[in-house]
Design a protein that fits this description.
single chain, about 300 residues, alpha/beta, FAD/NAD(P)-binding domain, seven-stranded mixed beta sheet, five-stranded parallel beta sheet, 17 strands
Length: about 300
Amino acid sequence: MASNKLYDVVILGTGPAGLQAAIHAARKKVSVLLMGRPGKSSLFWAHVENFYAIANASGREMLRIGREQAMKFGTEILEEDVLQLSAAEPLFNITTESNLELQTKALIIATGTARKTLGVTGEKEFLGRGVSYCVECDANFFEGADVAVVGGASAAVGGALTLLDYAKTVHLICEKLEVTDALKRQVEESATVIHAGRKVKEIVGRDSAEAIVLGDGTKIPVTGVFIELGSKGVMELATRIGIQLDDEMKYIQTTKKMETNIPGIYAAGDICGPPWQIAKAVGEGCVAGLGAAAYVKKLGKVG
């Protein structure tokens, strides 16, 4: 796939909402790129018995079939996460974890909202007092500090690289680096201190986080602990370009046409709020896919 390639529609998320959006958009004869890894969809591990006309099915098999349908209608698939997202009216710029630079006329966000936690002592206690789940949101609070990022996927690695511009020392703690070779090489060649094959046992401190303790008892003094256990947080990327969230800052707000407050950007599925059901995700994906296709046709030739 060439860098700087322009698509009509880029869809973030390979769950039921994203796949349904891809199927409907591609059927309208527009170019579609679907980004993400199937195994990150919550449906991948599910067993389905309450979806219309399906009484007993493997979520993994449903995703496989949906993926084949999307490809049949011309959807391209890129199993990478987004590291950066910016607006360049009337287009949107996307940087992937392998440093591909892509552009799109319309964007559909269908990534779900699951926030993975460590589940260790000190995580909840020091939330907002040293513990954070959002590098993009809180990096500036740790200017000149010693910090740690926990996780081995693109969110953690990208977060560690971002924090190098703020913190004195950045520790990356992970069991395994699970990113592209390009991103792995970038972090390994940076000033990030990597603790591979390690687990966090607890986060300790008095009024705020002061250190993390690893499984072997090693204590690393840090005042900031960023827990980034998944892909690059799309909600973080979304807020940076001005996408409006709900009053609790949990979900993306949309119209009945699944439009966000930014023309050309749509959202569908769990990222728009409950109920957490495949039926809702598929329906919203359908509406978003049709809407995005209609938008780019009306927009016409650009770029």
